[in-house]
Specification:
This protein is α+β, with helices and mostly antiparallel strands. It has 13 helices and five strands. The chain folds into two domains: 218 residues, Rhopdopsin 7-helix transmembrane proteins (Up-down Bundle), CATH 1.20.1070; 158 residues, Alpha-Beta Plaits (2-Layer Sandwich), CATH 3.30.70.270. 69% of the residues lie in helices and 9% in strands. Strands 2-3-1-4-5 form a five-stranded mixed beta sheet.
Length: 387
């Protein structure tokens, strides 16, 4: 029995050592810090249980179980942080529930109840720590397959803890950790599996989150939050390839902000950056879900509209131009307009994104030359692509 507890102690400590070695060059984040702390607290708790029957019961029962409750709270909270679901309200609930759980267990101990009652209480209390993170991982439709799997595995842990409480009601203290028998062996195996599930699961979910962040950094523009030039071009080329198979129209819009340099010179670059961010948000809200919207560089932006003919694309371009012209950004000391160049073609295997850009760029120049704050269309491209 002591060997098992020692193994659990070193299992948690080695987990911390290995993760710290792996992440030593990474900035520490909230989830990792909470997980580290949970492993240390759980290691201390299992270390205390080694001295059961040799140290005072208050030390090896009350204090040890209190540390186990704290460790469970910290570990499950770290999973919620990874899911971006650990709000201030949830944090306060966790602190309150952990405090109540510890006070309740201490009260039960001093009331002189049997070990069976403590087993029932501890099993149900621990399961409630796990229940909400498991529910979040299962119910979140945006969650990954890994998160769903972790949610189901943790649900099994919750159910097993409930079964332990029920067995304790009917069979008494034979389900205790210190009662030799088949159930003791099953409990020790379960403890190992729960430790492996928590440790491995956190590492994998943390790595998955890091991969998602890296993809976002590589794919999106830092300032505006929309697709960067490289990702816009990749997605647009793939989209055109799919439209060519279906012989559908594709429209390409290229636009920039009128007199943007003057905005920077007059109000400063911080206002110029704010203009780009607010404009990107406004345009994104106006576009349909299938539209591909990206920043080409500076104040130049591009939109690819799949399965959109001339009439519909003209309506969209005019709507964007008009919306920006009449919108008043309350946090900005100015209003501004955009000029749009566009082209529409029937997508074929020979349709090139670079060609669409060139014709839209020419149309954008025409819109600027004609006085700005207007939409211009390249008709030459239609003739070339369909001729």
């Amino acid at each position: 029995m002591k060997t098992v507890f020692i193994s659990l102690v070193f299992g948690h400590i080695f987990t911390v050592i290995l993760i710290r070695a792996y992440r030593q060059n990474y900035m520490k984040d909230r989830a990792v810090n909470m997980f580290y702390l949970s492993k240390w607290v759980q290691a201390i708790a299992w270390f205390m249980l080694i001295f059961r029957h040799t140290a005072p019961d208050f030390f090896s029962i009350t204090v040890a179980n209190s540390f186990l409750f704290i460790g469970a709270a910290l570990e499950t909270a770290s999973f919620l942080v990874l899911q971006k679901a650990f709000s201030k309200q949830i944090r306060n609930l966790y602190i309150g529930y952990t405090t109540i759980t510890i006070i309740g267990f201490v009260s039960i101990y001093f009331s002189g109840v049997t070990e069976t009652t403590r087993i029932i209480y501890a099993s149900i209390a621990t399961s409630l720590f796990i229940l909400y993170p498991a529910y979040r991982m299962i119910s979140d439709r945006q969650a990954s397959s890994l998160q769903h799997l972790m949610g189901y595995l943790y649900s099994i842990v919750v159910i097993s803890l409930w079964f332990r409480a029920v067995f304790a009601m009917y069979f008494g203290d034979i389900v205790g950790l210190f009662t030799i028998g088949m159930y003791q062996t099953f409990t020790f195996l379960s403890l190992y599996l729960i430790m492996i599930l928590g440790n491995t699961g956190f590492v994998l979910l943390s790595k998955e989150q890091a991969d998602v962040d890296l993809i976002r950094i590589a794919s999106y523009d830092d300032l505006t939050g929309i697709l960067n030039r490289r990702t816009f071009m990749i997605q647009s080329k793939n989209c055109i390839y799919g439209l060519a198979k279906k012989q559908q129209f594709v429209s390409y819009l290229l636009f920039d902000i009128d007199h943007y340099k003057a905005i920077n010179d007059t109000y400063g670059h911080h206002i110029g950056d704010r203009v780009l961010r607010d404009m990107a948000i406004l345009v994104t809200e106006q576009l349909e879900e299938q539209a591909i919207f990206g920043r080409y560089g500076g104040d130049e932006f591009a939109i690819l509209l799949p399965d959109t003919d001339e009439q519909r694309s003209t309506q969209i371009a005019e709507q964007l131009r008009s919306t920006i012209e009449h919108h008043r950004f309350h946090a900005l000391p100015l209003s501004y307009t955009i000029s749009v160049g566009m082209v529409t073609v029937l997508a074929t295997k020979d349709t090139q994104l670079g060609t669409l850009y060139q014709h839209s760029d020419r149309a954008l120049y025409e819109a600027k030359y004609a006085g700005r704050n207007r939409v211009a269309r390249s008709l030459l491209a239609v003739q070339e692509e369909s001729g």
